[in-house]
Write a structure and sequence with these properties.
Oligomer: single chain
Strand order of the largest sheet: 1-2
Order of helices and strands: HHHHHHHHHHEE
CATH class of the largest domain: Mainly Alpha
Number of helices: 10
Helix content: 55-70%
Number of domains: 2
CATH superfamily of the largest domain: Winged helix-like DNA-binding domain superfamily/Winged helix DNA-binding domain
Length: 214
């Protein structure tokens, strides 16, 4: 897959009219708006920031659309642009000490992730999650590091392959696999501890099996 070229001054290759690219972009990229907005919400702290990130993503994607290789995953390509745009915005915010960057994954945006997360976990883990109300699962997710949450979202909600997630996030495929594994492992540990305190289950072992109390 060709990497997105943000604002490539070279423009489209010879023989390809800008009008043709614009028509292709409208036909292929615009239907992804809702999905991209949901992703932007998980990378920002409020709706306005999500809308700004989405707008920036679409602009950069349009400018560099001639670098997209037809037949590859456009969704993953767009998320790569969004990921890079978010990093750029984050760095700009860090240079503004008067502005506080809120936790990237706001708690309210995690609600839609729960059914996908349950689907992504092994059946024994999923049945253990059913013992918890959504707010406790959200609290557990908020204890995960940002890269774990984002990786799990791309894998379980967007259905991207490990290779595609590696392209999006700019890390090795092995790192993606590790983040998914460690993120779910940490989630099991947090929920298992909470369950034992509430006496919902006696134990949630490393094999994902749980034993109910009573």
């Amino acid at each position: 897959m060709l990497q997105p070229c943000e604002g490539d001054p070279a423009g489209p290759p010879a023989g390809i009219l800008r009008s043709e690219l614009a028509a292709r972009f409208e036909r292929e990229a615009l239907p992804l708006l809702d999905r991209l907005f949901r992703g932007a919400q998980r990378l920002t702290s409020n709706r306005q920031d999500a809308e700004d990130l989405l707008q920036e993503t679409m602009l950069l994607a349009y400018r560099g659309f001639h670098t997209f290789e037809e037949g590859t995953n456009l969704n993953a390509w767009m998320f790569r642009i969004m990921h890079n745009a978010r990093i750029t915005r984050h760095r700009k915010m860090e240079r503004r000490p008067s502005e506080v960057l809120v936790e990237d994954f706001a708690a309210q945006t995690l609600t839609e992730l729960l059914p996908y997360l349950r689907r992504g976990l092994r059946s024994a883990e999923a049945s253990a999650l059913e013992l918890f109300p959504d707010d406790e699962i959200r609290n557990a997710l908020m204890q995960l590091r940002d890269e774990y949450r984002w990786t799990i979202y791309l894998a379980d909600v967007e259905g991207l392959s490990y290779k595609e997630i590696a392209d999006v996030t700019g890390v090795a495929t092995g790192t993606v696999m590790s983040r998914v594994h460690r993120g779910r492992q940490r989630l099991r540990a947090v929920l298992g501890s909470t369950a034992r305190r509430r006496r919902l289950i006696r134990d949630l072992g490393s094999d994902g099996r749980h034993r109910a109390c009573g």
